[in-house]
Amino acid sequence: MANKRKIIQVITLIIFVALIVLGKVQLWMAVFLGGLLLSTVKGRLYCGYVCPINTVMEIVDNDAAKRKRKRFKTPKWAKSNIVRVGILVLFFIIFVFIQKTGKKLPVLPALFALGIILTVFFEPSFWHRYLCPYGTLFSLFSKKSKVGYTISEEGCIKCGMCVKNCPADAIKQGEKNTVPYIIQSDCIVCGKCEAVCPTKVISYDKAKSTETV
Questions:
Q1: CA triplet 50, 52, 57: central angle to 5 degrees?
Q2: Average pLDDT for residues 40-61, to the nearest whole number?
Q3: Residue 191 is part of which domain span?
Q4: Is there a contact between 172 and 180 (Cβ–Cβ < 8 Å)?
Q5: Cα angle vertex 192, ends 135, 83, to 5°?
Q6: CA distance 42 to 172
Q7: What are the helix (H) ranges across the chain?
Q8: Residue 43 has pLDDT above 60, yes or no
Q9: Does the pLDDT of residue 197 top 50, yes or no?
Q10: Is the torsion defined by CA of 134, 136, 137, 141 positive or negative?
Q11: What is the tens place of the pLDDT at every residue in 108-155?
Q12: Domain of 189: which CATH number?
């Protein structure tokens, strides 16, 4: 599954760059809307497999891990729902402005650059969970998703590796001796938790509801 994901990421990144070069990046919205609809059933597959911002962010993130380069954690002010909603509202205002005036503002390229720059200095969860307006939309649409990554209680050694390696801060662990749980609406379906799990008890399967957390 990991290799398949990488292939899809490379292909979609090439398409995205080509659309920017050709001046037709607005066509990417069709891909985005398709991913948004799919998220109601399969979770945020767009984020983990298709999103060009995440694809390049992973390269930056992996480089930081190899070099053991420390980055800033998400600021406390950014964790407020007011911030997430405010950014989403601003995003919609800009979208309406573009539709009304016909002006072609480089919104997608700007968000692409912002996500990459922030990942150089901050942990990726700052962007994925709290700042990305697309991510906020996906978190709303995927709340009732029927499929997603889940952690089986049987066999879990409660090591917390999945919690530490989740780039979206979507995995929580109440106490050290409790089984972690995944907040489906924040999970970007990247598969990192599955890859680092020493007992292989994490799988992309029928999702458990964690939205009351």
A1: 115
A2: 95
A3: 148-206
A4: yes
A5: 25
A6: 21
A7: 2-21, 28-42, 45, 52-66, 81-101, 107-121, 125, 133-141, 161-165, 192-196
A8: yes
A9: yes
A10: positive
A11: 889 999 999 999 999 999 999 999 999 999 999 999 898 999 999 999
A12: 3.30.70.20
Instruction: Indicate whether 184 and 127 sit together in one domain.
Output: no
Is the residue at 16 inside a domain?
Answer: yes
Domain contains 159: yes
Q: Indicate the DSSP class of residue 128.
A: I
Pair 127, 61 in one domain: yes
Q: What is the pLDDT of residue 152?
A: 93
Within this chain, do residues 171 and 129 fall inside the same structural domain, yes or no?
A: no
User: Given 110, 141, 172, which residue is the final one in a domain?
Assistant: 141
Residue 173 CB neighbours (<10 A):
17
Into how many domains does the chain fold?
2
Question: Quick check: pTM over 0.90?
Answer: no
Q: How far apart are CA 3 and CA 56, in angstroms?
A: 16
**Which residue type sits at 174?**
G
- pLDDT on residue 213: 40
Q: Is the dihedral of CA 20, 23, 25, 27 positive or negative?
A: negative
Task: Give the tokens for residue 96.
Answer: 């309406």
- Verify that 50 and 133 share a domain, yes or no: yes
